[in-house]
Amino acid sequence: MIGITGVTGELGSFVADLVDKRGMASIHLARSPERATVYTTAEIRKMVYANTPEVDEALKGIDAWVSTYTSIKVGEQAGVSTDVENVLGRPATSLLDILRDRQLIEEEQ
Questions:
Q1: Which CATH number fits the domain that encloses residue 21?
Q2: Which of 7, 40, 76, 92 could form a disulfide with 71 if both were Cys (CB 3.0 to 4.6 A apart)?
Q3: DSSP labels for 36-100?
Q4: Structure pTM?
């Protein structure tokens, strides 16, 4: 099961849409579940961003993370996986490439 955090934000909801279009089951971890888009392939769980028993409960059943911040905080991104490629259908983009592309876009404007 894939867990997605930040699903009420722009990036998280973009990833959630991609996962849903691929028909993959997912768990959306949101601070505000009432703001999260509801998909038939997803379960929405209340997420808090601190090391508490509530966090452990929210994470049960999640095999892979797609996250913008929480998984980094708790050390879940220590290893390299193919999760991003599996979701997007292409290899992950490095942060350096994203920043370089952003700079090029801004210079063109």
A1: 3.40.50
A2: 76
A3: SPP-TTEEEEE--SSSSHHHHHHHTT--EEE-SSHHHHTTTTSS--SHHHHHHSSPPPPHHHHHH
A4: 0.56
